[in-house]
Amino acid sequence: MRIGVITFPGSLDDRDAQRAVRLAGGEPVALWHGSHDLEGVDALILPGGFSYGDYLRCGAIASLSPIMTEVVDAANAGMPVLGICNGFQMLAEAHLLEGGLIRNDHGSFICRDQVLRVENASTAWTGEFEAGQEITIPLKNGEGGFIASEETLDRLEGEGRVAFRYVGVNPNGSLRDIAGITNAAGNVVGLMPHPEHAVEPGFGPDTAAAMRSGVDGLGFFTSVIRRTLVEA
Asked: Catalytic annotation on 85?
């Protein structure tokens, strides 16, 4: 399975996402933001970083990059798309996902291992998990507070479109502890934490027991590969 990872000016985690795809058994395909060619990939990842220096708003300028025309069309046609951190912000700016992301409520950049609860295990990117399962993956952002109107929040909750929720502590002021959401079809998922940084044993949270694990993020990538192969 070929999974495209798009590089934007200021992307930081594109190579990490490519490595995660490779470790999951897929073939990563490097795509450039200025191209209109998705090169026949089966799924797409919009990686983390600081695209265009986060000018205007995080993800705002990147959402207008040439390749985003194809991303929007592909997503609307059912292609699996994952937005990680800055990629989540891009998906919100492109109106592929509802709500928005704002400055952390404490005003500071945060970098930590974060416990998440899987709320929706039926999306293209979460099928390897179980609903209610808790996973730990790194979180690093300065503008990760998820916001939406009460009406939108109620709809996301009612339709089961909250994909992940923060557990134990809300690190950035996200409304209703929301860490990630999905679209109605379940093919587009965005989250602020970084699953691509939790794909190898020995790189888990800094505790003796957890250090032997560190692969809670791998399920994102194996999920989409398995889903796509089953549907092929």
From this structure: yes
